[in-house]
Amino acid sequence: MEKAIFGAGCFWGVEEAFRTLPGVTATRAGYTGGLAQHPTYAQVCAGVTGHTEAVEVTYDPARVTYDELLCVFWETHDPTRQQKTQYASVIFFVTRTQKDAAEAAKAALEASGTYRGNVETAILPARPFWPAEGYHQQYYKKHGGGACPI
To answer: I want to staple 29 with a disulfide (CB 3.0 to 4.6 A). Which of 84, 90, 123, 132 is the partner?
Structure first.
C-alpha cells in the first residue's frame, strides 16, 4: 500500500471522490502543511495554523495508479482559483516519483488550455498529517452529501 495526500477545497467532497475509487483502501480527512501540532477544525478555520484541509489516500498501486489519483484530484476542483490556505489546491508529495508525476500532470494541464487562468496548485513535500475530528471522516457517506461540492 502507498499513501498520497491532496488538498482541493473542503475535504468532505474530496474524501468521497477518493474513497469510492476502486483500489483505494482507506481515506482520512485531516490537516497538513502548517506548523501547529494537533490542530483543530476551529483553529484551521480561523487561519492560525497554516494548515490546509486535505485527504490522505491509502491505495494499492497494483489496482490504481498515482496518475489516476491525480486525474481525480484535478477533476474534483478548479485548480485556477486561489483560495485561502484552508482550502488551497495542493499536492503533498510523499516520494520523488509522486513529485515528478504531479509536476508533469500540472504542466500538461496548463498546456492543454483547459483553463483560462493559471493552474495555481502548489506541489509541496508532505508534512505531518493530522486526522480531522471524527465527525469529518466519511462525512458524505454518513450524511448523504454535504455543503461542499465534489
So the answer is: 132
